[in-house]
Amino acid sequence: MILPAHYVAKKPIIRELIDYDQFCGVTPPEAESTEAADWEMTVTDLKAKLDRGEPLTIIDVRDPHEWQICNLETYGSKLIPLGQFAARMSELNSEDDIVVHCKMGGRSADAYRMLQQAGFKRIKNLKGGITAWADQVDPTVPKY
After folding, report:
1. Using CA of residue 123, residue 107, residue 38, residue 28, what is the dihedral sign?
2. I need a labelling partner for 6 at 20 to 30 A (CA). Which of 17, 33, 62, 90 fits?
3. What is the CATH number for 50?
4. How far is CA 17 from CA 14, 21, 22, in A?
């Protein structure tokens, strides 16, 4: 069967890659004209701080079934799923240095914003999440 020309779909031409972070909604929180790097920490920076024994509170905002696949519990990470985060923020001390993370950084960016709005100042989002940790720090960490 031959369709008339106006029924034939044209294939789109991809001319450039999209900004994945922007497409997925992983954008830096509104800040007082600071650079995006001010709100994030790389996995290599986190590992260096942990190796130096710097006190950090690491909060994993993934769901419990994700935590069971892989986690940073050996570094003291605590699980507070994003769906429970607002109700459980009182468990955190605003004087602590807090690093929030998830699988790739999107959900933890939401947790970062919640903490920021609650007046927490010493917070960082782990750039790339546990996936970046597996890629750059510990390749034995399972990826999903």
Report:
1. negative
2. 17
3. 3.40.250.10
4. 8, 12, 12
| 8, part of any domain | no
* Residue 28 within a domain: no
Residues 123, 31 contacting (CB under 8 angstroms): no
C-alpha distances (whole Å) from 64 to each of 26, 32, 115, 120, 129 are: 22, 34, 21, 25, 16
What is the span of the domain harbouring residue 79?
A: 37-136
Q: For residue 131, count other CB atoms closer than 10 A to its CB.
A: 18
Number of domains into which the chain is organized: 1
Which tens digit of pLDDT belongs to each residue from 80-137?
999 999 999 999 999 999 999 999 999 999 999 999 999 999 999 999 999 999 999 9
| Mean per-residue pLDDT of the chain | 86
Percent of the chain's residues with pLDDT above 70: 74
The alpha helices in 42-100, defined as continuous H runs, are: 43-51, 64-69, 82-88
